[in-house]
Amino acid sequence: MDMREVYVVAGSFVGFQLFFSCISPVLSSNFTQGYGKLPPNKLNDWNSRLVSTVHALIVGLFCLYILWYDDAVNEDPIWGDPNMVKLNVAITCGYLFYDLVLLACNWSTMGDMFFVCHHLAALYAYGFVLTRGVLPYFANFRLISELSTPFVNQRWFFEALAFPRTHPLVVSNGVAMTVVFFLVRIAVMPPYWARVFGTFGTPAFERLGLAAQVAWILSCICLDILNTIWMYKIARGCFKVITGKLRGRKVDSKKTSYTNNHTD
User: What is the pTM of this model?
Assistant: First the structure.
């Protein structure tokens, strides 16, 4: 790993921690009065999710830029020039280290083994990108999934501020979250794996060695399993919200009050 990537990982770790501790509280309190009324455990979660959104936008947009304009990576997905991809991956690794530390320090209120497994699998695979400069196209392609994160976090923000689930903004965000999550995490699986299988047996694939091959394939399988589980949960929640809103309209048409108690 070059010193540039080391500095980016460390800088990202420190930067995201500063955003969590200093910048997010100031921005959030000025943006909404509801922030100051949250209990301490939800304040941590709020700040964490705002950091997550910032990271997702930086990395996700950078990922799209690389996919559209980095010809070297697109032409040689295993051994193409990894410089821009390594920068993007280093930012993500810094964020993942920050988030793991945050989860460990607040495990009783924020701990989630799914996220720990997700982070460790990603770090294991991205370690090969940073240390050996291999698989730049595939590493960058996986980062497309970050584009769904702002919608997932916005759903939580609405819930923390006690927006009813039938509120138009909540419903719109829920539908957008479901659609984007599907597009960037589920719909991309067939073309991604088709490109993966297309490398099997090639000299470039053989040059990777067994360790990198196993890290690449197994981490992708684990991440896709987790994404499928999350997709199921998100789709089920979206269905409940939409059908609940439709039921609410029917009840309103009968001049009967409708209450959403958020029990699902």
Answer: 0.85
